[in-house]
Amino acid sequence: MNPPVLYIVVPCYNEEAVLPVTSGMFREKLRQLTAAGKIAEESRVLFVNDGSKDRTWEIIQDLNRQDEHFQGIAQSRNRGHQNAVLAGLMEAMDRCDITISIDCDGQDDLNAMDAMVDAYLDGCEIVYGVRAKRDTDSAFKRATAQGFYRFLNFMGAEVVYNHADYRLMSARALREFAKFKEVNLYLRGMVPLVGFKSTCVYYDRHERLAGKSHYPLRKMLGLAFDGVTSLSVKPIRMITTIGLVISVLSFLGIIWALITAFTGRSVAGWASTACIVCFMGGIQAMFLGVIGEYIGKIYMETKARPRYIIAERTEGMAEKDAQ
User: Fold this and answer.
1) Which of 24, 165, 219, 227 is the 20 to 30 Å CA partner of 34?
2) Beta partners for residue 98, in sequence order
3) Distance separating alpha carbons of residues 159 and 231, to the nearest angstrom
4) ∠279-231-8 over CA atoms, to 5°?
């Protein structure tokens, strides 16, 4: 059996500070895996430029001119991390046997790729890179991240605990994954839906090597909300249940109010009335907001807009497409 062709898919957004550092690390890992006979010489590193505003794309082009093992594609505009990862996976799908998606910042341990490839050779189609611990995170980020994974599982979404987007997927799994047509992407929740034999590889995460994170709290909360509403309808069902409970309590309250009025024991009280009105108004606004979020996603899905558009390819990629 010939060793598999591996494409390391690396999404990049404004990474001119860290890319010159981590690109050499990716290339060295390819060399090590090739020397060990685990992957084929045709394996490549595929950078996906997600509409960067700095010199990221120029650096990728320079890397490609220096070494054919570096290849790249550039999106027509910034479309977000999840769409960039998807673009790279779909671009690599017909060129390789396996892909490994990984961020550009150097935080994920590259040595975990050895165990991922070994798991694939043992028959796994999907291998999840899972953080063994979160010592490098602040107490706030650690608590919110772990709470989010538990919340997703509670909501009925199938996610791998402490797994982000560091994973191996075979070409077979990618071909099946390509049939998922969602516009609202949450890959770490969608990939488990593909099925096939899978396993986890545990690793320690490091500090970012250079540059700054492009995932502030605002974006993390947006991704979390997308994950819940894209993978689960449980919030809608919870709203229905809470609505029924409130309706029953309101009905009982009406009966109590009527009995009090008929027995002459009623006392005018603006405070209780105001509390009830505010409570009901708040509940209704919250419910409408959650329902509106689902309607908004339905609206975006029905448009069926492209999830990514490739504007440019490095020379090696373009030549292969022309053949």
Assistant:
1) 165
2) 6, 170
3) 10
4) 135
Which amino acid is residue 108, in one-letter code?
D
Whole-number Å distance between alpha carbons of 85 and 49: 10
Which tokens belong to 152? 């997703």
Tokens, residue 82: 């999840």
Pick from 112, 92, 95: nearest CA to 29: 112
The two tokens of residue 235 are: 């919030």
DSSP string for 226-253: HHHHHH--HHHHHHHHHHHHHHHHHHHH
pLDDT for the residue 161: 76
By CB atoms closer than 10 A (0-12, 13-18, 19+), residue 249 is exposed
pLDDT digits (tens, 9 = 90+) for 204-240: 877 655 556 555 556 666 666 666 666 666 677 677 6
Q: Locate 105 and state its tokens.
A: 């910042």
The DSSP output letter for 51 is: S
Closest CA to 45 of 97, 76, 88, 16: 88
Q: Which pair of tokens denotes residue 134? A: 């979160």
The residue among 167 and 284 whose pLDDT is bigger is 167
Q: Which amino acid is it at 40?
A: A
Chain segment 235-273, per-residue pLDDT in tens: 776 776 777 777 667 666 666 666 666 676 656 664 566
Distances (CA, A) of 87 to 10, 47, 116, 266, 291: 10, 10, 22, 67, 30
Tokens at 219, concatenated: 């974006």
Helices 19-35 and 112-121 meet at what angle, rounded to 10?
40
Stated pTM of the model:
0.73
Contact 99/165 with Cβ under 8 angstroms? Answer: no
Residue 132 DSSP class: S
Q: Is there a contact between 203 and 133 (Cβ–Cβ < 8 Å)?
A: no
At 302, the amino acid letter reads: T
Q: Are 291 and 72 in contact (CB under 8 A)?
A: no
User: Which residues sit opposite 75 in a β-bridge?
Assistant: 310
